[in-house]
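C-alpha cells for chain A. Residues wanted.
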C-alpha cells in the first residue's frame, strides 16, 4: 500500500468517526417525549373511579355527559379555582377537572330522581344532558344522583306532566289492580296445589301457607321460579317451613340462642311426623 492510499484510508476513518459522534450528540440532545397525561393523573378523583365514564359516542350522535361530585381537593384546569370537596366537576381530557362554569355546563338545571315520566321527557327535550354521579365509598362504585337538564326542556317536561297527570295516575292504579289480580290468582293456585299434595292439611292452613310463601318481594320459596311452575319440591319446602314454625318449638329454640342448623335438626323428627300426617 502506497503512502497516498494510507492517507486516504485514514481520512475516511476520521470522517466515519466524526459522523458517529455527531449522531450520538443528536441522540443525547433530543428531548425525551413523554406520554400525554391521563385522567387518572389529575388532582381530583382517583383513576379507578373515573373508569365509570360513558364511552365517547361517534360525532353527530347524542351522548350523555358525566358530572362528578368530588370528594377531594383539586384545582380547575382552566380558571385555577379551588375545587373543594362536594364541588361538581367535569373531566375534560388533558385539562383534567373543570368547574361547571369552565365546562359551559353551569346553565343547566338539576333534576333529582323520583319522577320517571318527568326525567324521561326532560332528557328527551334537552339538547345537552349530564348525569350527576357520586362515588359511594361503601359500595365502591359511582351512583346516579340525578340529571343536569336545560331549563327550557325541564319546563316543557313539567308542563306536559301536569297536563296528563290524571291519566298517568289512572293508568298506574289500573296496572296495580292488574298485578294484584294476577298475584291473587297465583296464591289461590299455589294453595290448591298444597291441598292436592297434602290433603290432610288442616282447614284454611293451605291458604295461610300460600299467602306467606308467595308474599311479594319476600324472597321466600313461593316467589322462586320453581314455585311459579308449581313444582312439588317448592310446595313441599313451603309446607315444611310452615310446620317448623307453627307445629314445633323451633322459634323457642332460636329465642334461646340455638344455632339455626342445630334447631332445625332438633325439630326434624316432629316436622317429618306432621308431613306424614298431612300427606295421608
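Reply:
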Amino acid at each position: 500500500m502506497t503512502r497516498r492510499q494510507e492517507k486516504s484510508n485514514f481520512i475516511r476513518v476520521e470522517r466515519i468517526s466524526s459522523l458517529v459522534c455527531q449522531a450520538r450528540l443528536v441522540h443525547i440532545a433530543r428531548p425525551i417525549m413523554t406520554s400525554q397525561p391521563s385522567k387518572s393523573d389529575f388532582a381530583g378523583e382517583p383513576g379507578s373511579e373515573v373508569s365509570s365514564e360513558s364511552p365517547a359516542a361517534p360525532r353527530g350522535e347524542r351522548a350523555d355527559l358525566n358530572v362528578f361530585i368530588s370528594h377531594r381537593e383539586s384545582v380547575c384546569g382552566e380558571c385555577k379555582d379551588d375545587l373543594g370537596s362536594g364541588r361538581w366537576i367535569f373531566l375534560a381530557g388533558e385539562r383534567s377537572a373543570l368547574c361547571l362554569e369552565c365546562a359551559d355546563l353551569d346553565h343547566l338545571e338539576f333534576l333529582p330522581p323520583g319522577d320517571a315520566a318527568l326525567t324521561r321527557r326532560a332528557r328527551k327535550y334537552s339538547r345537552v344532558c349530564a348525569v350527576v354521579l357520586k362515588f359511594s365509598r361503601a359500595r365502591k362504585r359511582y351512583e346516579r344522583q340525578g340529571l343536569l337538564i336545560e331549563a327550557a326542556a325541564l319546563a316543557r317536561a313539567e308542563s306536559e306532566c301536569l297536563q296528563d297527570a290524571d291519566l298517568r295516575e289512572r293508568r298506574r292504579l289500573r296496572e296495580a289492580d292488574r298485578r294484584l289480580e294476577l298475584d291473587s290468582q297465583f296464591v289461590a293456585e299455589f294453595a290448591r296445589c298444597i291441598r292436592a299434595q297434602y290433603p290432610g292439611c288442616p282447614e284454611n292452613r293451605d291458604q295461610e301457607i300460600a299467602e306467606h310463601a308467595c308474599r311479594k318481594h319476600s324472597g321466600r320459596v313461593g316467589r322462586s321460579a320453581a314455585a311459579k311452575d308449581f313444582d312439588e319440591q317448592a310446595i313441599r319446602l313451603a309446607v315444611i317451613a310452615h310446620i317448623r314454625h307453627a307445629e314445633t318449638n323451633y322459634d323457642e329454640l332460636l329465642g334461646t340462642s340455638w344455632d339455626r342448623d342445630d334447631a332445625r335438626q332438633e325439630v326434624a323428627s316432629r316436622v317429618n311426623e306432621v308431613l306424614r300426617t298431612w300427606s295421608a
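The chain is about 50% helix and 10% strand. The radius of gyration is 36 Å.
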